[in-house]
Specification:
single chain; about 325 residues; mainly alpha; 13 helices; about 75% helix
Length: about 325
């Protein structure tokens, strides 16, 4: 059951924001730096994302459409259904964050890693993650603006302008310049990955500082957080079961079902955090909390599933005959956990 070290860094950043929130001039500087960091993040997303590789995967369009449907249709429907849990289990701000989590695109790196571990269709996982990222740049902000109402920015001209300037324009600039800077980005991906993560930490610090200054954390009691975790566990379980057995009903083979399960049941922390900062403003701290919790939960659960899928017998490979002469049992090689 892996604990993502980056989650620990995020939690440490939340702790720093709780103890030393940015105020006054420091808050203004942090807010400006956060805005610049978001623009840089989406510029690097655009520069790294190979549109050609994504388009080359169109031949497997049924699988990719199914992943997109899970990410941007089934997930949001589950989020809307959770509205009935307010205010008994969830507070309204926590529900807004939960609904936002259901709108963000799928992950790329972890979907590929788990698909590879489980012996699934890795090229399809790469394409599915790329498609989800491309669609999410437009779909996530528009869905959030439509479904979250005033607290999510609404459909005002100001909120749409923020989306365009802070998310879409930098992303398109990265795509346009990829021809010239793509090699540099590939060669220095580790260093730029640190820039990515550092930028997100700054976004989290700014968002949680604003939440502390405005005193909104009384809405997140331990009991409410426990209820949120239970709701997220149910949503994750539904999506894992739906993607696996739904893939079988749609006629996908084992490798494609693995890709569908891991790409269709995940949500991207890296894409969701900066988007929440743009859409929610001072309310972003509670809005990103459900996403941070879900991110760790999906990593832990999917790691276990991937290991079990890896031990499934390969089609066409027969199991070895038991050793009858020795009189001892032959171990299955399986391990618990």
């Amino acid at each position: 059951m892996p604990i993502d070290p980056y989650i620990l860094l995020l939690l440490a950043t939340v702790g720093v924001a709780a103890l030393f929130p940015a105020r006054g001039t420091v808050a203004d500087v942090a807010s400006g730096a956060s805005t610049a960091a978001i623009a840089l993040l989406f510029f690097l997303y655009g520069a790294r994302l190979s549109t050609r590789e994504a388009l080359d995967g169109l031949r497997h369009w049924r699988l990719h459409v199914t992943v997109l449907a899970c990410t941007f249709a089934v997930f949001p429907l589950l989020g809307l259904a959770a509205r009935g849990l307010v205010p008994v289990i969830l507070t309204h701000p926590l529900y807004q964050g939960l609904l936002f989590l259901t709108l963000v695109p799928s992950t790329v790196q972890s979907s590929i890693a788990f698909t590879s571990m489980a012996r699934g269709n890795v090229p399809a996982a790469i394409c599915a993650g790329s498609f989800s990222s491309l669609v999410g740049i437009i779909a996530t902000p528009l869905l959030a603006a439509s479904l979250l109402g005033g607290s999510g920015g609404g459909l005002s001209a100001d909120s749409l302008l923020k989306i365009v300037l802070q998310l879409l324009v930098p992303f398109l600039a990265g795509q346009l310049l990829r021809r010239w800077i793509g090699g540099f980005v590939t060669r220095h991906k580790k260093v730029l990955g640190l820039v990515d993560r550092g930028s997100i930490l700054l976004v989290v610090y700014t968002a949680f500082s604003q939440g502390m200054v405005q005193g909104i954390w009384h809405q997140a009691s331990p009991l409410r957080l426990g209820g949120l975790l239970v709701v997220e566990a149910v949503i994750l379980a539904v999506m894992l079961l739906l993607t696996w057995y739904g893939g079988k009903a749609l006629g996908f083979g084992r490798e494609d079902r693995i890709t569908l399960q891991f790409a269709g049941s995940k949500k991207s922390l890296a894409a969701g955090l900066p988007m929440a900062s743009v859409l929610f403003g001072a309310q972003a701290s509670l809005a990103v909390l459900p996403l941070m919790l879900f991110h760790q939960m999906q990593l832990m659960v999917c790691a276990v599933i991937a290991k079990r899928r890896a031990r499934d017998p390969r089609p066409g490979v027969t199991a070895p005959e038991p050793a009858a002469a020795s009189g001892t049992e032959v171990g299955t090689g399986t391990r618990s956990g």
